[in-house]
Write a structure and sequence with these properties.
The complex is a heterodimer of chains A (114) and B (112).
Chain A (H helix, E strand, L loop, with lengths): L4 E3 L2 E4 L5 E6 L6 E7 L5 E8 L14 E5 L5 E5 L8 E8 L8 E2 L3 E5 L1
Parallel strand pairs in A: 2-10
Antiparallel strand pairs in A: 1-3, 3-7, 4-5, 4-8, 6-7, 8-9, 8-10
Chain B lengths: L3 E4 L2 E5 L5 E6 L4 E9 L6 E6 L5 E4 L2 E6 L4 E6 L8 E9 L5 E3 L3 E6 L1
Parallel strand pairs in B: 2-11
Antiparallel strand pairs in B: 1-3, 3-8, 4-5, 4-9, 6-7, 7-8, 9-10, 9-11
The chains are: A mainly beta (114), B mainly beta (112).
């Protein structure tokens, strides 16, 4: 596709439920990032994938958060046993290898945990 | 701990004015400083970026000023237009790092 796409655009869930958020990066981009944007806050780095290398998980806030990237393309961010403080916009970005500043962002998934 | 501090939180200017958004950092290992523009319901989009060996960079109406000794950088928007109304984020990347550290954003409103 022309840009990074994410689905769903909005997700409302109940506390304690698991959710999966999907990201389709730009074709040819080998690097993929997940960020979280909370109301009134900047973007918070969560995880980074580069090719077949082990992901950089240093930004994941707890072990309830995990992500995978299949076939070097599509990525899924999973949040288990969601809490109200997980409510935020989750943004995915992709870039060419070695070019983190040149990230292209998707429109995000707005997650609301009731 | 906020690695990049951004101010002001919000800014209102008249059309044609020159809004200035400021950012400061502490980590001297940062080597790349991009600015992103975000419209409601959209992801951030790269606007302009600078490296610390340059004191100023211009692209169209957007200018970054960089003060390495003060560890500060700022975005100036010349001849601002209502279409520039958006949230602006500064960011920084550490040498060899995989991710960006973002400021908390500035919501800019340009009044016609």
């Amino acid at each position: 596709g022309a840009g990074v796409s994410q689905s769903p655009s909005n997700k409302v869930t109940e506390k304690g439920k698991d959710v999966e958020l999907r990201c389709d990066p730009i074709s040819g981009h080998t690097a993929l990032y997940w960020y979280r944007q909370s109301l009134g806050q900047g973007l918070e780095f969560l995880i980074y994938f580069q090719g077949n290398s082990a992901p950089d998980k240093s930004g994941l806030p707890s072990d309830r958060f995990s992500a995978e990237r299949t076939g070097g393309s599509v990525s899924t961010l999973t949040i288990q046993r969601t809490q109200q403080e997980d409510s935020a916009v989750y943004l995915c970005a992709s870039s060419f290898a070695g070019s983190p500043p040149g990230q292209f962002f998707g429109p995000g998934t707005r997650l609301t945990v009731l | 701990q906020q690695q990049v501090k951004q101010s002001p939180q919000s800014l209102i200017v008249q059309k044609g004015g020159i809004p200035i958004i400021n950012c400061a950092y502490e980590n001297t290992a940062f080597d790349y400083f991009p600015w992103y523009q975000q419209f409601p319901g959209k992801g951030p989009a790269l606007l302009i970026a600078i490296r610390p060996d340059v004191s100023e960079k211009k692209e169209g109406r957007f200018t970054i000023s960089f003060n390495k000794s003060a560890k500060q950088f700022s975005l100036h928007i010349m001849d601002s237009q209502p279409g520039d109304s958006a949230t602006y984020f500064c960011a920084a990347r550490g040498t060899g790092a995989n991710n960006l550290f973002f400021g908390t954003g500035t919501r800019l409103t340009v009044i016609p």
